[in-house]
Amino acid sequence: MHSPLLEQLIQSLRCLPGVGPKSAQRMAIYLLERNRSGAARLSDTLALALDNIGRCEQCRALTEEVRCRICSNPARNKSILCVVGSPADLYAIEQAGSYQGLYFVLSGHLSPIDGIGPDDIGINELMTLLQQNPVEEVILANNPNVEGDATAYYIAGLLKDQNLVISRIAHGVPVGGELEYVDGGTLSHAFNGRQLLR
Amino acid sequence: MHSPLLEQLIQSLRCLPGVGPKSAQRMAIYLLERNRSGAARLSDTLALALDNIGRCEQCRALTEEVRCRICSNPARNKSILCVVGSPADLYAIEQAGSYQGLYFVLSGHLSPIDGIGPDDIGINELMTLLQQNPVEEVILANNPNVEGDATAYYIAGLLKDQNLVISRIAHGVPVGGELEYVDGGTLSHAFNGRQLLR
Questions:
Q1: Which residues in chain B are closer than 8 Å to A40, comparing Cβ atoms?
Q2: Are B16 and A25 inside 8 Å of each other by CB?
Q3: How far is residue A55's CA from residue A53's CA, in Å, rounded to a whole number?
Q4: Which of A1, A17, A69 has the CB atom closest to B95's CB atom?
Q5: Residue ranges of the C4-type zinc fingers (chains A, B) (predicted)?
Q6: Do A64 and B4 touch (CB under 8 A)?
Q7: Which residue does chain B place closest to A63, by CA atoms?
Q8: Checking DSSP bridges between strand B54-55 and strand B62-63, what pairing results, if any?
Q9: CA dist A130 to A67, A80, A102, A121, A125, Å?
């Protein structure tokens, strides 16, 4: 039905997350009919990014430099390290704007059922970094789900003999949410982690 | 927050229809972290498609050949021409599988409010084609909305002195739908266009 090259383009667009056959066809037609300059820019930038963007040698965030802008920023507090599960989590924390320490980006979380162990997500590199650059506190900001919790507890276990503070970001009710719609697990965490007002 | 090249990639991905800043960031991270081979294939295919895919000289469908596979297929019925508003509409009709004639693909529909007139959507080329390759019937399959109807009536007006059948695809209740949820305009069309059973 499609010409062979158009079909190939539609199949290539399906490598994008969340893009099925209908969206891929819509994207291909839109790019070819309406936005050829945008498509050319996308093709070039993608090739350039693949050639140049790698991981920061220190925190493993995505960057085209040897060391990312956060790790090489002298204004950041080098005594706190925040461990996250993906670059997207790092950007979310940066966007919130309140954290001023350094990061370490794991490649996802432990998931024995999928065969993903400590070596696969970069925990060895984290341990090496902590030996070479000792910090005062490690904040475990892994996702608040089973895999994230398991990864956080695993890292806490590895670090328990070292002389540093290990913390986990708080679980509780999201700001602006309504209690009525919060799930039971979150509510239990919110009660267990309640803060004294006076 | 993002490295400059990563930011550039995220901006480039936003040229895709339906992709906002969050989806673009998700796509960029996914491609760089999880699917570099897919991303490289996408970059190459996109460049190849932009260089090679143009419009069929006869029906204006997207193709890398001079004349598309439908126009150059001797088995198609050359006495019927179906006019559609975009290549996606052509693919939808082909997928339905019941139409065996030729097509002509307009670039959208008339929309005087947006400054889109007959010259902009290819109606001149349609008239030239019909002069050079006379047909017995023109089926106007423009979208069933205000712009599509206006375009269909405009084309019908241009062709009224020629000796050919001009038809418009039927408006009515969609197959598999429930009357309860069909809008009033569609129901009126369904009643006006009712078919005699005997």
A1: 46-47, 50
A2: no
A3: 7
A4: A1
A5: 56-71
A6: yes
A7: B3
A8: antiparallel
A9: 16, 11, 12, 16, 9
Do the Cβ atoms of B15 and A42 come within 8 Å? yes
For residue B21, what are its two tokens?
A: 């800043």
Which chain A residue is nearest to residue B36, measuring alpha carbons?
A50
Q: A88 vs B25: CB contact, 8 Å cut-off? A: yes
CB-based contact A46 B43, cutoff 8 Å? yes
Tokens 């009224």 found at: B160
- Here the ipTM equals 0.86
> Measured between alpha carbons, how far apart are the two ends of chain A, in Å?
71
Measure the CA–CA gap between B169 and B99, rounded to whole angstroms: 12
Residues of B in contact with A107 (CB under 8 A): 33
User: Residue A192 in 3-state DSSP?
Assistant: helix
pLDDT tens for chain A, 198 residues long, are: 889 999 999 999 999 999 999 999 999 999 999 999 999 999 999 999 999 999 999 999 999 999 999 999 999 999 999 999 999 999 999 998 999 999 999 999 999 899 999 999 999 999 999 999 999 999 999 998 889 999 999 999 999 888 899 999 988 888 887 888 888 888 888 888 888 887
Domain ranges of chain B: 4-52, 62-172
AA letter at B73: N
Right CATH for A75-168 from 3.30.465.10, 3.90.1640.10, 1.10.3720.10, 3.40.1360.10: 3.40.1360.10
Residues B62-172, CATH architecture: 3-Layer(aba) Sandwich (3.40)
